[in-house]
Structures are given as structure tokens and as C-alpha cells.
Design goal:
The chain is of the alpha/beta class. It has a single domain, classed as P-loop containing nucleotide triphosphate hydrolases (Rossmann fold). It is built from ten helices and ten strands. The mean pLDDT is 91. Bound molecules: adenosine-5'-triphosphate. Belongs to the ABC transporter superfamily. This is ABC transporter ATP-binding protein.
Length: 237
Amino acid sequence: MLELSNIVVQYGMVKAVRNVSLTVGKGEIVALLGPNGAGKTTLVSAAVGILPVAAGNIRFDGADITKRPAESVVAMGLTLTPEGRRVFAELSVADNLTLGAATRKDRAGVAEDIDRYLKMFPILGERYHQVAKTLSGGEQQMLAVARSLMSRPKLLMLDEPSLGLAPRIVERIFELMIDLRKSGLTMLVVEQNATEALGIADRGYIMASGQVVYEGNAAEMVDSEDLMEAYLGAGVH
Ligand SMILES: Nc1ncnc2c1ncn2[C@@H]1O[C@H](COP(=O)(O)OP(=O)(O)OP(=O)(O)O)[C@@H](O)[C@H]1O
């Protein structure tokens, strides 16, 4: 469904992503792991058109999207929930959700989806008219995910969805990903919680210093203590 080939992304003269190739098949959950500064956020930002690629090719759902602007990529069904619970802080939960559907024209479908996601995230229903900045960290992350889902993605990329959240909320986020997969969503998840991410993923990639240093079957990766130790060190819980 998504095919990144030999991607290079630069900040000025610095190559943050160096020749990375990665694929996500329909229905898969793929985990993208690696230490701080490895280039994971840069890679997913480039994949959705937020950052330009200096070289390489991006294909999504049969089309070349390498040079497409971000809005057009979202409209095609490839959406990123960025790192750091980025919601519109001054807007209500309701407005955040509606804005998530900005690329859609089917009003009735949007209303149905709001109902659906309020059922999936009951806390957002309780806080429906509250401004987002008054929500707890976990609630804001739920809102960020729900807002992304409002664009009706075929493939959702989640950048560190569990970052800074209490263990109980982290567990809830991972359960949610399992539910979303059952509903047919394909996902790429960037995570520091390597063990948990590989626990729900089919395959995993490990990046270090801008490159993919390992890729493999998630169950085999999580069982390999040497691998986890070598590449992920303190990131392993
Ligand atoms: N806007 C920027 N300008 C210059 N350098 C940047 C910028 N954003 C990131 N970098 C650099 O690019 C490299 C990759 O950063 P990136 O945020 O993609 O890593 P990451 O794997 O997502 O890390 P983390 O797990 O800490 O979020 C780092 O060396 C970082 O300092």
C-alpha cells in the first residue's frame, strides 16, 4: 500500500534520512523503532508530504505521491498523527474533529464518523464542547488520533502515540490500534516502547543515524534479546 524507496531528506546540508526504503502492506501494522534522533519523525513527515524529499520515491495506493502536497496526500487516504498530541488547543473537541474532516465533502458521512468515534472514545463525548487545551494528556492524544481518523485514512501513521502517557493510557492506545486494525485500517507506528509496539505489529524496522539498520518479523524481533539490546538499548522496557 505504501512504498518508500531510497528516501533522502535533508535539513540544509544535514541528511537526516539517508536512502531509506520501507513498505507497508494493506492490513499490516508496521512498527518503526530507533533511538532519539534516528530520523523516524523526519521520514514519516516526508512520507505525507510535510517535508520535501531530496531523493527517492514514494508510492501510495498505486500512485506516485513523491511531490504531492500534504492536503492532497491526506485526501488520498494517507494521514499522520504527529508527535506531541498536536490538537488545536483553543478549539473545542467538536471543532477539532470537524477540522479533521476538512478534505471531505460528504457531510452525512462526517456526522456518522463523529458518532462512531465518540463511541470509540467515550471521554471525547463527555468533553465534546470543552476546548482541547483543558483535556488531559491522554485525552488530547485520543483526540489527536480521532481527528486523524476523521479524514478516513486508508493508512494511518502514528508518531509516538504513547509518548509521555501513563502506563494505563499507553495500554489503551495499543488496544485501540488493535481495534482499528480489525476495522480494516493499515498502520505505521513510530514508537519508543519497542516491546509493546512489536507486540501488536506484523513487521518492524529499526532506524539509526538516518538509516534502516534492521527489518524483520515483529515476533522474531521481540524475541531476540541481542537485537533489542544492540539497537534499542535503553528504549527496551
Ligand atoms: N527542523 C530541523 N532542522 C534541523 N535538523 C533537524 C530538524 N528536525 C530534526 N532535525 C535533525 O534530524 C535528525 C532526525 O530527527 P528526527 O526528529 O527525525 O528523529 P526521530 O528518530 O524522530 O527522533 P525522536 O525519537 O527523538 O523523535 C536529528 O539529528 C535532528 O536533530
